[in-house]
TrEMBL record:
Pfam families: HTH_20. InterPro entries: ArsR-like_HTH, HTH_ArsR_DNA-bd_dom, WH-like_DNA-bd_sf, WH_DNA-bd_sf. Residues 2-89 form the HTH arsR-type domain. This is Helix-turn-helix domain-containing protein.
């Protein structure tokens, strides 16, 4: 299974999100973090991610006669090669999986005891903006500059993990002819 196929599944994406930040978690820990997905399904997807090299076994211990494994995310394997040629259908599948995972994560957040979207500063706004290619590249660079340093943050007192999902695509073709006044 190639990386796109491996990561283009909502449950596997949720497992990857849960593992970010240098965490080492057991499959049972993941079941607790993804309560709306059955135990068997989480275990099956963890096995697929291990088989695909996205997760690795960080340690093992005996618990009541069974072996409990702790897993960690291999950051270098949890990405789709930006130089890999993707078809329109690949993009469609990847986007569908990402939005399905986003919906599931948001539903799980709302279902948690004590969730408070206002206090947690939850946001989900959309803005349609007109940009030249130069302005678009500048916007992307600015977003990367704002986000990239925070990707290295790990769990710490006073920190909560947030899911940030920038989505950017043109909603209409570029206008041919003169610019509007």
């Amino acid at each position: 299974m190639d990386t796109l196929e491996l990561l283009a599944h909502p449950v596997r994406l949720r497992v990857v999100h849960a593992m970010r930040g240098g965490r080492t978690l057991t499959a049972s820990d993941l079941v607790a973090r993804i309560p709306d997905v059955s135990r068997a399904t989480v275990y099956r997807h963890v096995d697929l991610l291990v088989g695909g090299g996205v997760l690795e076994v960080a340690g093992e211990r005996r618990v009541r006669g069974a072996v409990e494994r702790r897993y960690r995310l291999r950051q270098d394997r949890a990405v789709i090669d930006p130089d890999a040629p993707l078809t329109r259908e690949d993009h469609r599948r990847g986007f569908a999986a990402a939005t399905a995972a986003l919906l599931a994560e948001f539903g799980a957040y709302l279902d948690r005891e004590g969730s408070d979207p206002a206090a947690d500063l939850v946001g989900y706004r959309q803005h349609a903006v007109w940009l030249s290619e130069e302005e678009l590249l500048d916007l992307i660079a600015g977003m990367r500059a704002a986000i990239a340093p925070r990707l290295a943050n790990g769990p710490a007192p006073g920190r909560a993990q947030y899911l940030l999902s920038p989505i950017l695509f043109p909603i209409e073709p570029s206008a041919a002819g003169p610019e509007p006044a």
